[in-house]
Write a structure and sequence with these properties.
The protein contains 11 helices and 11 strands. It is α/β, with parallel strands linked by helices. The strands form 3 sheets. A 7-stranded mixed β-sheet has the order 5-4-3-6-9-11-10, with helices on both faces. Strands 1-2 form a two-stranded antiparallel sheet. Strands 7-8 form a two-stranded parallel ribbon. Helix 9 links the parallel strand 7 (188-189) and strand 8.
């Protein structure tokens, strides 16, 4: 089977699960992962036979079962980091890269500050912070034992020194005080499961995505309350959030004496990120 034939075979076999653009992206990831060939190199070899064809057929069988490509190859690229992934952690999204870039561009370089990532999961936010701001004292809290093991592993392979702590934001307390607190907590209401890909529902940790319909702001309330003692005066809070909750989250911040509230849209032009300064 040639590279061109393999590409077309992928498009035919998983067209019910993915769009053409997604299939092409998956194909490129797999080829680069196994054969170390980029898109231009593959194009040149289009009519050549694919080596190790059994590997690609095996991957295709897993894709047809709905297993995300990031779990199949066991890693994901996030900004300038490579992270291990499995079904214990949420696959980092491009929107979260936007959040990290917003924080990095908003904060001065070469400034020693203490930063906390709440609900670190794979460690993508905290590790990206430390890689791009080595002078920062970065802390990461996570409730899941399995997730924090992966985050610690990812920190090691990216050679970043981060203070990880098993921590439940809904129940635990901390004596630390931070200059910045960042969080991408679970925020999608459970009633949105009907509009969510079966791939996500079947394979990614749903507790890292969804919240009860009647408690959609539970983590935002908890983190803002936590910030009363654990964020310094003049410190900054950053959230990623569900666009429908913008007004409610603004209200939570305002009633808890946060000011200079700034809202930022994602690449899809949806309200997705918010920051505020503690009075």
């Amino acid at each position: 089977m040639t590279f061109k034939e393999l590409n077309n075979f992928f498009k035919k076999e998983i067209s019910l699960l993915y769009s053409d653009n997604e299939i092409q992206s998956i194909y490129n990831i797999i080829i680069e992962e196994k054969l170390n060939l980029n898109k231009a190199q593959v194009y040149i070899k289009n009519n050549e036979k694919v080596p190790k064809i059994g590997y690609f057929i095996n991957v295709l069988d897993k894709l047809k079962k709905g297993i995300p490509i990031q779990y199949i190859i066991g890693k994901v690229y996030f900004l300038n980091t490579i992270l291990k992934t499995n079904q214990n952690v949420l696959i980092p999204r491009p929107e979260t890269e936007e959040l990290v870039n917003w924080v990095l561009s908003s904060e001065k370089k070469n400034k020693k500050i203490k930063v906390l990532d709440i609900g670190t999961g794979s460690g993508c936010i905290s590790i990206a912070f430390k890689k791009n701001r080595s002078e920062w004292d970065v802390h990461a809290y996570e409730k899941s034992t399995n997730a924090i093991k992966i985050a610690i592993f990812n920190s090691k392979i990216n050679k970043t020194l981060i203070n990880f702590k098993k921590f439940d934001i809904l129940n635990d307390k901390s004596d630390n005080v931070f200059d910045i607190i960042v969080s991408n907590p679970p925020y999608v209401p459970e009633n949105q499961k009907k509009n969510t890909s079966k791939i996500i529902l079947d394979f990614e940790p749903n507790e890292a995505i969804f919240v009860p319909n009647n408690k959609s702001l539970i983590f935002y309330n908890a983190i803002v309350n936590f910030s009363k003692k654990s964020l310094r005066k003049g410190g900054k809070l950053y959230f990623e959030f569900y666009s429908e909750n913008l007004i409610k989250i603004k209200h939570i911040l305002q009633k808890n004496k946060f000011h200079n509230i700034e809202v930022k849209r994602d690449l899809n032009e949806k309200n997705r990120f918010i920051s505020a300064i503690k009075k």
